[in-house]
Amino acid sequence: MNVRVVDYDPIWPDLFRTEARQMEDILKENLIEVFHIGSTSVPGLKAKPIIDIMPVVLSIEQIDERSGQFEAIGYESMGELGIPGRRYLRKGGENRTHQIHAFQYDSVQNITRHLAFRDYLRCHPDVCSAYAALKSELAMRYPGDIGGYCDGKDTFVKRVERDALQWYWKKYDAISRC
Predict the structure, then answer these.
(1) pLDDT, tens digit, 9 for 90 and up, residues 74-96
(2) How far is the C-alpha of 80 from the C-alpha of 78, rounded, in Å?
(3) Residue 20 within any structural domain of the chain
(4) What sections of 56-145 are H helices per DSSP?
(5) pTM value?
(6) Under 8 Å CB-to-CB from 68, ≥6 apart: which residues?
(7) How many domains does the chain have?
């Protein structure tokens, strides 16, 4: 897979909403919420032009049961793909345009880390800029090596994820006090 990092495109939220509507039609009453996650969900952040979508569902097994309906709109089901409890689907094969990371509602840790990371980047422009610079540098260094690109981001992402979770839970605690 070629690694291509591009400037933020204001059409990305619309591309997310289009796919989210299709997921609502497929998942119906099983769907709790669909979230736009990943770099394309952070205004101004450079990203690989792949829309990351996180449906949260009542029953993860229903994702498997409806794999034919996802295939009909262009998705390939990849199972858990390294994260227990997740269902990963991709659209566009090796030149993917969209990725689904579906979780059952009780996979709180996975759901929270995605939302906290996204929200932290949205609220911390300095961290967002540093992440954009790192992504651009790694894309130039590893243009044909997605593994090298991902490995290069790993330490930064883990540190930001840790900070983001602390920030997220402090923010949550502050608004949840009666």
Answers:
(1) 999 999 999 999 999 999 987 89
(2) 7
(3) yes
(4) 61-65, 67-72, 108-123, 125-141
(5) 0.93
(6) none
(7) 1
